[in-house]
Structures are given as structure tokens and as C-alpha cells.
Amino acid sequence: MFLVMSDSHYDRKVVEQIKAKYQGQVSAIFHCGDSELESSDSVWSGVHVVAGNCDYDPGYKESKLVEVEGKRVLISHGHLYNVGFGLDRYSYFAEEQKADIALFGHIHQPVAQVIGKTLFINPGSVSQPRGQYNIKMYATVEVEDNYYKVTYYTLEHEPIDGLAFEFTIG
């Protein structure tokens, strides 16, 4: 299982708290950008993090491809792929990268969707939620071969009703 969060917008404490709860309990921790923290901040030790449209520190990468639990996990904030207007451009990039899972932020709303052979996940926002679910949230992803379970949690680490999804891909 790995953890995904995004769009913390200067709230270092929430990143620290989520990281403290899960570090050593999950295979990886991801932050999909818009932290507005320095890339050298110690909170990023052991966290895969990318630049969002509000991150101006040149130490961040625009995207990363990481192997986790035998899966190729792509992480990008998504703004460079216009994810606010759909996942077409990001899905082409994910396909080029041969990603099994593609993580993104930017829209501050939960998304768990399969396009082709790739699972796309937006964990919502840990500080500024938008849309139907006005809840500060993050997500976990359980991986077993071609089976995935995505569960969204409140900042109190409680599962959110109606936001748990299972996918079989392959």
C-alpha cells in the first residue's frame, strides 16, 4: 500500500502529520505538488514530490516515474497537461511513460479512473478541497497484481463514505 496527497498550499503541518502516521507503514509516500514549500525542506525526506503551478523552487521536478510494488507510478501535478479540462493529454503522457498508475493534483478533487491500462488517481487536497466533496483528504492505494483499491481518508484518518474504489486492470 502507498499513500498519495496533494495541494497542501503552505500547510507544512498537515504534510508532517500524514507522513508521521504512515511512514514505515506504507511502501511509498507521494505529494502531487502545490506545497509552496522549499524543495530542500526536511519534510520531503522519504517523500516523492513534484512541482505544482504554485511551486517556484527549481529543485522540484515536473514529473517523476517511480517503481513501487512492481508498478510504474507516474507523478505530476497535472497543470502542464490541463487536467482541469480532462485527462486526455495526461493519459497520452502516461502511456508514453508506460505507467501503470498516474498520480496528479491541481484540481483539488478526488479522481479514481482507468484509461486504457492506467489507473489515474487524484487524492483531492489536504488543505483546500473543491467540488462535490468539501473535505480535506488524501488517498491510499493497495496493489495486488492487476487489482487496485483506492481509499480516500479525512485528515482524522477516517475513510470517506462513497470514496473507496476497486479496479481490476489487465
Tally the beta strands.
Answer: 11
The CATH topology label is: Purple Acid Phosphatase, chain A, domain 2
SSE topology string = EHEEEEHEEEEEE
Count of alpha and pi helical runs: 2
| Percent of sequence in beta strands | 35-45%
CATH class, named Alpha Beta
Number of domains: 1
With strands numbered from the N-terminus, the spatial order across the biggest sheet is 3-2-1-9-10-11
Can you give a write-up of this model?
This protein has one domain (2-168): Metallo-dependent phosphatases (Purple Acid Phosphatase, chain A, domain 2), CATH 3.60.21.10. The protein is 12% helix and 36% strand. It contains two helices and eleven strands; from the N terminus they run E-H-E-E-E-E-H-E-E-E-E-E-E. The chain has helices at 12-22, 88-96; strands spanning 2-5, 29-31, 48-49, 63-68, 71-76, 101-103, 110-115, 118-123, 137-144, 147-154, 159-168. The two termini are 19 Å apart. The model has no long low-confidence stretch (mean pLDDT 97). Its EC number is 3.1.4.-. Belongs to the metallophosphoesterase superfamily. YfcE family.
